[in-house]
């Protein structure tokens, strides 16, 4: 929640502009903003602050005669403040209705992926008749074609986690192992919606990466901006209970999407 004690007129107006844009996705003028604010304030005063905020780079005009919208800089600060006290590392949300979640993603134009835990370590490597290598992890297993060099290399990685093993396999060119790890992780996806938005968020090969659970290793818990996403997009990474299972959820989209409404409607439906 926003801290409203002793809030200045400047911050009150800026927050009101942001909330109005999140709600309507359209620029707002001084008169309309004044009618929507909880505190009575004349349009002339609001216009003075419009100029001040514009000079500070917090708001801008799409057209000379049009209303104002918040800038990307303002939105980033807004989301950081909004989620400042949110514990993203704990499963504070319960999701039991996938249809509701799908409709919510479509309505708010957000990409969402939920996947189960794959935090596990490489426990042992078994040579199967010099034909295959069986990699046993804490909960899963991977089968590779036998190669004595690969076997010797991987023996040194006993106890390494799945994420680090994927990174190492990419660094040393173990393409089969990397592909098998990604396949294993992909099998743990329990929900995915609005994949087409990935094409809008990225203008390079990253649009393929965000469709994979491995993308989560590039994100920190909580709010993520550049360089993970392009400047006008953002993403959230948080722990949830999905269908009773501890899971990770990634939701991403425009920096102007209403992430508070997204999380609140999920919480209300639980």
Automatic annotation (TrEMBL):
It comes from the Bacteria. The keyword Transcription regulation applies. The keyword Iron does not apply. GO terms for biological process: negative regulation of DNA-templated transcription. InterPro entries: HrcA (IPR002571), WH-like_DNA-bd_sf (IPR036388), WH_DNA-bd_sf (IPR036390). Coiled coil: none annotated. GO terms for molecular function: DNA binding. Keywords: Repressor, Stress response, Transcription, Transcription regulation. Signal peptide: none annotated. This is Heat-inducible transcription repressor. The gene is hrcA.
